[in-house]
Prior knowledge:
This is Coenzyme A biosynthesis bifunctional protein CoaBC. The chain is of the alpha/beta class.
Amino acid sequence: MDRPKVVLGVSGGIAAYKACELLRRLTESGHDVRVVPTASALRFVGEPTWSALSGNPVSPQVWDDVHEVPHVRIGQAADLVVVAPATADTLARAAHGLADDLLTNTLLTARCPVVFAPAMHTEMWENPATRENVATLRRRGAVVIEPAVGRLTGVDTGKGRLPDPAEIFEVCRRVLARGAEGGSADLAGRHVVVSAGGTREPLDPVRFLGNRSSGKQGYALARTAVARGARVTLVAANTDLADPAGADVVRVGTAVQLREAVLKAASDADAVVMAAAVADFRPATYAAGKIKKREGQEPAPVELVRNPDVLAELAADRPHAGQVVVGFAAETDDVLANGRAKLARKGCDLLVVNEVGERRTFGSEENEAVVLAADGTETPVPYGPKEALADVVWDLVARRW
C-alpha cells in the first residue's frame, strides 16, 4: 500500500515522552512513520521504544546506513515532517539552516509541509531570539504551532507546554490533506479570531437561558486555520472540547463576556469569524437565590432584555479597513431568505447560513451550508465534515485579503 510517509522529529525535551502518543495515532491511522530523534531526545525516550512503535529503524546519526544516504533520502521521500516537541535549540538550528545531525539534515532536504510543535519554558518561548526564529520559519512556509498554557517542568506554569498529542495529530492530518490537494500555509502571517460554542445567560445560581451549540464548527474553523499557518485566537463559550493545538483559547460564559473578549482580540485581527451561538436576550434580573416552586402559584414571567449585537458592532466599527468579518446564521425556516436579510442587516462580508434543529447540525460532526457574500455571490457547501466547511470559509476570507 502507498501509505503517506511521515517523519516524526523528536527534540531533547521532557515532553519527548508525549510524542509516543502522537506516533501511535499516526501509525494506527495508516501512516508510515520514520522517527528521527536528536541525541538528546534519546536520553528521555530510548531508541528501542521508537523503533518498536514505528516499525522502522531509528538513529540520530548521519553515519548509520551511509550507503542509503539517509541524510538526504528521508527528507526527500517524506509527505510530512512534524517535529514534536520542538525545543528552542531545534527551532534555532532549523531557522539558521544548520545540519549537524540527521534531523536538521532531514529538515533541509524536505520538500513537503513541515510542522513544528514547540515545547519549552515560558521565558525561552518569549525570548526575542526564539520569536525571531519562529517568525523566520513561518515566513518560509512552516507551520509553527503555538504552545499550550499549563504546567511546565517543576513547579512552573505558563505558555510553553506541548499541546495535546491528539490535537497535534489533527493539525498533521489537515496539513497532509491540504498538501495532497496542493494547498499550503496560505494564512501564514495572519491573525484570525474565531468564536465558538453557545453563551449562557444566568437566571439564578442554578438555571440559565442557553442553546444547543456544541462549538464543533468553531473548533473546526480554529483547527483548519492553525493548519493553514494562521495565529488563532479562539473565544470559546461553554464548550467541553479539547483545546485545538496552536490556538490561544479564551473561555467565556455570557454574551457580554464574549463581546468583551472578541472585541479585545479583534483589535489586531485580519479576520473575525463569529461561529458562536450568541444569545439574543438575557433575563432582566438575576435572582441571587434559587427561584423556588410555590404550591398553588404560577411562576412569575421572566422579563428579557436584548444582548449586544456583537456581529453588527464588529462589522460597523473595524479597527482597519482590511479586516474581514464573517457571521453565522442558524435558521429553522426560510433559510436563505432570512440569511440574506441578516447579511444586509449585520453588514458583514460573509454569512454562513445553515438549517438547524434538535437533531440537525447541533452536536454533529457534519454540516451543510450556503455562504452568502456582501457582493451577492453564494457558495453552497454540500453535506460533509465541518472542517470541509471551515476550509471553504477560509478560502473565501483569503480571497478578500
